């Protein structure tokens, strides 16, 4: 497997020649060099296809090459000429495939035909599509609807997601967990309480008007690289960017635009962060408390001296609730606690606060470093507290920007993929489809795992994703998967979840969004919502990997037809024949959000959904934007007594993966090559724990619930990370995360601070 295992410090800026080389090499590896470069010119263009990688905004005036290194990799992965046809499965039993790495499973290539697992031979065997649907329908009928889970990974289009949610509800359940339950659910739970919207308020235009950006816990150079363009432009205007991240991520330090010949030739790079604060894992609540404390106390002083206030009192009086209690809590918070919990000095925090205080319009941007913690929801709310202090919501250049993950994860929520019945317009569903939508709350991701463990779940239908690999606590979960009656996976490539299957299992291959989707009325397009709340159309450009593939809407419709009693008010066939009809149904269900969807999805730059908070209207219980007093400044109130030997581990992505899809073993930006089985540690901790570079260790979770959670074979390397913290890769380290170790209100697995101890192997 690994030719070379080493850790070289990274010196190049993000982007640059390294990025250009990487695009070429992935196209070559997937055997698509010339053709692939042509396909890439359609990426993120009006009338082209929307990238299958991240959800970053698509500008109205795209660059000639509006894609990044990682978008190109994701495209190459979908248009690969490699396939895993039924012949491949005839050669390999599931038991054998289980010994393959995640990378090797997916690297087998695109799935080409519908298959059912054959218990006698332990192989997936091709069956005709209609037979698959008939059997799935027969197996779902008559089952307790609440024992079936309908999971969605964030790539499926608005059309597919709307149909899938309707299928689950007509079947009788709200069991609709989504990848966002592992991702920005802390945002979806946190923001409605503070500013009355479930999504971010920042649009691309705001980047042109902002005069300060605060960045928390996002690895932009790797996970939303196209965002480096607006960041670079903002820096050229002199906008300060303050970054809070335990790691000095190269993409947030400096950037060379690989699509600018001049920058490439001259090696000119733009410094991105003007101040870089390497806080402790989970230190965000404390760090933001430090900023708020400084602002409030500086404001107290300024007003006492008759000077210009620092806090926006007019905005606070007119638009917010709870300021006094919050301000008092911040005045009372001690700098000792703030410094200890954040790992940052008062001086550094004061400098950041002063930068923020100087800005007329500031925005806060954040990712998984904030949401995937025990206190993830509270930290999100601290970010809105900070913005509200200076009226930074609902004016140009200001706002909150949760950087979403999957390319349509935000949109899926908007069209009904949610376990929470209060988030769907039941009256509309009743009116349009004449059925009674289930009122009982369904299962989110963690609850679905609990249901699989305790036998309440009997069948699992997955629209994409790699649920078994992306979720925590593998050693506990794996035997439970095999006890399910039925697993159905709609997928493009083989992954480990397909091998951890139920007693009856189907693997249904679908078109990728990049592929031409031909239906009764001709070639179809789909739509999606980006991270900034803009809806876009997307049209496939590549010939399908196999003529046996069906589109996702077609698969969902045919499962629905085989499972549900006929309903004259839902014509699944018409929907599949013409997706504009699905969009009309989406508009009829959500008229305020999706007005004229069929036309406006082709607007250059898409069209923005109405968001009350952007107009300073607050759809909260108090009718105002709410300040929320943090319960604690601690990262994890349930963390075991911090013994000397306990390390806080974050699991994160390399520059060479898309979630559980591992493209290769190098992490160029962070200088890791040829392996992912590393644990990167603070040198002081290594010394204290008597570990040397190159030692191979076993990591064990510190938890007192009777389960042993271990990952062996991790090579120790020194890294620039605060003391007491370490990092390693997701999903290799997911076995270490207890299922109950999740954000308290949102149940997002707390993948960024797992208490572990280490022991040398052998
Ligand atoms: N190429 C590529 N693009 C992707 C993905 C991919 O896998 N590959 N995944 C997509 C998905 S689904 C998502 S959700 C996003 C994920 O994108 P990110 O939100 O960037 O997620 P991670 O890669 O886990 O990186 C988390 C970052 O937070 C920092 N961090 C960790 N703990 C803390 C903390 O306690 N506080 C602070 N302030 N920072 C912390 C880490 O050092 C790291 O820089 O990217 C999307 N885009
Ligand atoms: N420890 C730890 N765990 C984490 C995270 C972390 O940072 N640390 N991050 C979490 C986050 S943010 C997320 S979003 C989840 C991701 O969880 P998932 O969304 O479930 O996982 P992915 O790896 O994105 O799914 C990849 C699979 O999707 C299938 N696929 C790809 N494209 C398509 C398509 O167009 N259609 C269909 N039907 N299938 C397709 C392929 O078969 C591929 O193998 O993981 C979470 N888990
Ligand atoms: Mo995500």
UniProtKB/TrEMBL annotation:
The keyword Nucleotide-binding does not apply. One of its GO terms (cellular component) is membrane. Its cofactor is [4Fe-4S] cluster; Mo-bis(molybdopterin guanine dinucleotide). Residues 110-492 form the Molybdopterin oxidoreductase domain. Keywords: 4Fe-4S, Iron, Iron-sulfur, Metal-binding, Molybdenum, Oxidoreductase. One of its GO terms (molecular function) is formate dehydrogenase (NAD+) activity. CDD domains: MopB_CT_ydeP, MopB_ydeP. Belongs to the prokaryotic molybdopterin-containing oxidoreductase family. This is Formate dehydrogenase. It comes from Bordetella flabilis.
């Amino acid at each position: 497997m690994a030719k070379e295992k080493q850790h070289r410090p990274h010196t190049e800026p993000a982007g640059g020649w390294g990025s250009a080389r990487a695009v070429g090499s992935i196209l070559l590896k997937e055997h698509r060099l010339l053709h692939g470069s042509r396909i890439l010119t359609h990426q993120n263009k009006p009338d082209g296809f929307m990238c299958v990688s991240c959800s970053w905004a698509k500008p109205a005036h795209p660059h000639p090459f509006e894609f990044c290194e990682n978008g190109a990799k994701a495209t190459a992965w979908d248009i690969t000429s490699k396939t895993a046809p039924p012949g491949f499965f005839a050669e390999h039993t599931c038991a054998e495939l289980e010994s393959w790495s995640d990378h090797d499973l997916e690297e087998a290539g695109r799935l080409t035909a519908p298959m059912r697992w054959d218990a006698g031979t332990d192989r997936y065997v091709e069956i005709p599509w209609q037979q698959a649907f008939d059997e799935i329908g027969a197996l779902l009928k008559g089952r307790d609807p609440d024992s079936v889970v309908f999971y969605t990974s964030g790539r499926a289009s608005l059309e597919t997601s709307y149909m899938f949610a309707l299928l689950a509800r007509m079947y009788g359940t709200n069991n609709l967990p989504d990848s966002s339950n592992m991702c920005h659910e802390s945002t979806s739970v946190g923001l409605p309480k503070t500013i009355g919207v479930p999504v971010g308020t920042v649009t691309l235009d705001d980047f042109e008007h902002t005069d300060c950006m605060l960045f928390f816990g996002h690895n932009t150079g790797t996970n939303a690289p196209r965002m480096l363009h607006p960041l670079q432009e903002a820096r050229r205007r002199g906008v300060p960017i303050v970054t809070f991240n335990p790691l000095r991520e190269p993409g947030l330090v400096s950037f060379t635009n690989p699509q600018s010949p001049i920058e490439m030739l001259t090696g000119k790079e733009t410094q991105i962060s003007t101040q870089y604060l390497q806080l402790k894992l989970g230190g965000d609540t404390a760090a933001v408390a430090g900023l708020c404390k400084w602002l409030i106390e500086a404001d107290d002083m300024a007003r006492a001296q008759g000077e210009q206030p620092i806090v926006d009192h007019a905005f606070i009086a007119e638009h917010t609730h709870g300021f006094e209690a919050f301000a008092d809590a911040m005045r009372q918070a001690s700098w000792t606690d703030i410094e200890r919990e954040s790992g940052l000095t008062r001086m550094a925090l004061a400098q950041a606060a002063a930068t923020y205080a100087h800005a007329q319009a500031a925005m806060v941007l954040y990712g998984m470093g904030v949401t995937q913690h025990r206190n993830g929801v509270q930290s999100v709310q601290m970010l809105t507290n900070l913005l509200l202090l200076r009226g930074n919501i609902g004016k140009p250049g200001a706002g909150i920007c949760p950087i979403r993950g999957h390319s349509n994860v935000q949109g899926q929520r908007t069209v009904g993929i949610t376990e929470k019945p209060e988030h769907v317009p039941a009256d509309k569903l009743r009116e349009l489809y004449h059925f009674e939508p289930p009122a009982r709350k369904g299962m989110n991701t963690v609850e679905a795992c609990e249901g699989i463990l305790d036998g309440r779940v009997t069948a699992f239908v997955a629209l994409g994703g790699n649920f078994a690999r992306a979720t925590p606590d593998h050693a506990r979960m794996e035997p439970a998967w095999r006890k399910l009656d039925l697993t159905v996976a709609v997928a493009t490539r083989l992954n480990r979840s397909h091998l951890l299957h139920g007693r009856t299992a189907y693997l249904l291959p679908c078109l990728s969004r990049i592929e031409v989707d031909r239906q009764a009325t001709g070639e179809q397009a789909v739509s999606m919502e980006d991270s900034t709340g803009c809806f876009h159309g997307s049209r496939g450009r590549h010939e399908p990997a196999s003529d046996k593939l069906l589109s996702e809407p077609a698969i969902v419709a045919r499962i629905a037809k085989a499972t549900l009693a006929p309903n004259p008010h839902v014509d699944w066939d018409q929907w599949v024949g013409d997706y504009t009809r699905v969009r009309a149904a989406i508009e009829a269900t959500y008229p305020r959000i999706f007005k004229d969807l069929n036309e406006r999805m082709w607007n250059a730059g898409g069209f923005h959904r109405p968001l009350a908070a952007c107009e300073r209207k607050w759809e909260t219980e108090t009718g105002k934007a709410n300040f929320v007093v943090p319960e604690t400044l601690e990262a994890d109130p349930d963390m075991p007594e911090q013994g000397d030997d306990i390390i806080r581990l974050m699991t994160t992505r390399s520059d060479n993966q898309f979630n559980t899809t591992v493209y290769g073993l190098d992490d160029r930006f962070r200088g890791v090559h040829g392996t992912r089985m590393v644990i990167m540690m603070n040198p002081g901790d290594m010394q204290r724990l008597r570990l040397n570079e190159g030692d191979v260790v076993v990591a064990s979770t510190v938890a007192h619930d009777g389960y042993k959670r271990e990952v062996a074979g991790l090579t120790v390397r020194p890294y620039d990370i605060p003391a007491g913290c370490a990092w390693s890769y997701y999903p290799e380290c997911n076995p270490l995360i207890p299922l109950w170790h999740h954000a308290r209100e949102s149940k997002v697995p707390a993948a960024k601070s797992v208490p572990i101890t280490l022991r040398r192997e052998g």
